[in-house]
Design a protein that fits this description.
By secondary structure, the protein is an alpha/beta fold. It has a single domain, classed as Aldehyde Dehydrogenase, Chain A, domain 2 (3-Layer(aba) Sandwich). The chain is about 35% helix and about 10% strand. The protein contains seven helices and six strands, in the order αβααββαβαβαβα. A four-stranded mixed sheet has the order 1-4-3-2, sandwiched between helices. The protein has a two-stranded parallel sheet with strand order 5-6. Helix 1 packs across helix 2. The longest helix is centred in the N-terminal third of the chain and has 17 residues. The mean pLDDT is about 95.
């Protein structure tokens, strides 16, 4: 989130990106890098939205957050939260599960000393990291071995596009959620998020070998 971002729009995208399908999506929002002057308002609104989401039986139409896939996944998320809290992070929402039901969790004050800064939770956890400048935000965004889907929020789309060019990720959405896929678009990441692309023409190019086959029409006269 750049300093001129629409906070409410960013909150909407973060809630969807971090908590949809309990955060168990390859494109899920894990780390949220926020301009320092927006951080307090953003985190308070994000925490309020997270706390308002309905956790329960996925067969119930009112449910927004269902169960995690298994105990091992829950233990992994718990260990990341525990480590972050021990090193100074603050839990603003969620953090305590009941069985496989893990409520949407918001962590503030996340730093590079914490495992959750570097590791993928693959759970309903949004980690908020403060950046004092755009250069610092870019550095933090790129300080990860992963690089599948990213997002940038700014009221200046042209400037955001210039920043997007400096983010190491296979996908970057300006003023949109990280969880976004379209069948006709090239999908794929960089770094530990893999290589190559699939989707539409990109899939044809990735999964086929380009060949050159000729047919000589008539007898050709060669130089020798």
């Amino acid at each position: 989130m750049l300093s001129d971002a629409d906070i409410d729009g960013a909150v909407d995208a973060a809630v969807f990106g971090a908590f949809m399908n309990q955060g168990q999506i390859c494109m899920s929002t894990e780390r949220i890098v926020v301009a320092s002057q927006l951080c307090d308002e953003f985190t308070s609104k994000l925490a309020a939205r997270a706390a308002s989401l309905v956790v329960g039986d996925p067969h119930d139409p009112a449910t927004q957050i269902g169960p995690m896939v298994h105990e091992t996944a829950c233990h992994h998320v718990e260990s990341l939260i525990r480590d972050a809290v021990d090193l100074g992070a603050e839990v603003l929402a969620g953090g305590q599960r009941e069985g496989l039901y893990f409520p949407p969790t918001v962590l503030a004050g996340v730093t590079s000393k914490m495992r959750i800064y570097h590791e993928e939770s693959f759970g309903p956890v949004a980690s908020v990291i403060t950046a004092d400048s755009e250069e610092a935000a870019i550095e933090i965004a790129n300080d990860t071995p992963f690089g599948l889907s990213s997002a940038l929020f700014s009221s200046d789309a042209a400037h955001a596009l210039e920043i997007a060019k400096r983010i190491r990720s296979g996908i970057c959405h300006i003023n949109g959620a990280t969880v976004h896929d379209e069948a006709q678009m090239p999908f794929g990441g960089v770094g530990d998020s893999g290589f190559g692309r699939f989707g539409s023409r990109a899939a044809i190019e990735e999964f086929t070998e380009l060949r050159w086959v000729t047919i000589q029409a008539g007898r050709r006269k060669y130089a020798m």
